[in-house]
Amino acid sequence: MRTLTDSQIRDSLLNASRSERKNMSLPPDLDQLAWDDIDFLGWKDPKFPNIGYVVVDLDGEPVGLLLRQTETRARSRPQCSWCADVHLPNDVVFYAAKRAGDAGRRGDTVGTLICEQFECSRNVRRLPPSAYLGFDREAARDRRIEALRQHVQGFVRDIRDGR
Questions:
Q1: Residue 130 DSSP label
Q2: Which of 13, 37, 85, 124 can pair with 64 through a Cys bridge, CB separation 3.0 to 4.6 Å?
Q3: What backbone phi and psi angles, to 5 degrees, belong to 152?
């Protein structure tokens, strides 16, 4: 992921109003992020605990979403739709996002299960256990990183394009 500024992040949110963009809290460690080690920028707003944000590089431009976490928790431990990590050290919750444009103004939303604190980039970078003799753990990790990027970009495209 490439380095983003405060204004680039705020301007990237395609399903947020002007007041939501203005009132959002940016990640507290924005100036210390290891941008090369993340596939998307994701964080929760400390002022609004059920609000999260995701910004991804999509077709060479930053595209961001405002997400709302549901109050309901799953009865069993769900799997993150983005990183698909089965050895999660964290909680997975349901986030919903308004679609961009007219569809979002009419209340059309899309939801998915995501790591609550957006730890997906860290999860996919852990070396997986060896599945069999000769298993290429590095290649498996690279495939997981690429799959994460595709999942996040697909979700953002769905919100943006209204499909």
A1: P
A2: 13
A3: -65, -45
C-alpha–C-alpha distance, residues 125 and 129, integer Å: 12
C-alpha span between 103 and 15 (Å, rounded): 10
- Closest by CA to 14, choosing from 68, 67, 64, 69, is 64
Rounded to whole angstroms, the Cα distance separating 105 from 87 reads 38
Tally the C-alpha atoms within 13 A of residue 157's C-alpha that lie toward its C-beta.
9
Q: Tell me the pLDDT tens digit for each residue of 70-89.
A: 887 666 678 899 998 766 66
Q: How far apart are CA 68 and CA 61, in angstroms?
A: 23
The whole-model pTM stands at: 0.88
Average pLDDT, the chain: 89
Rounded alpha-carbon distances, angstroms, from residue 105 to 97, 102, 160:
12, 5, 13
The whole-angstrom separation of Cα 41 and Cα 15 is 16
User: Measuring CA to CA, how many Å separate 24 from each of 11, 36, 65?
Assistant: 12, 24, 12
Strand 48-58 and strand 61-69: pairing? antiparallel
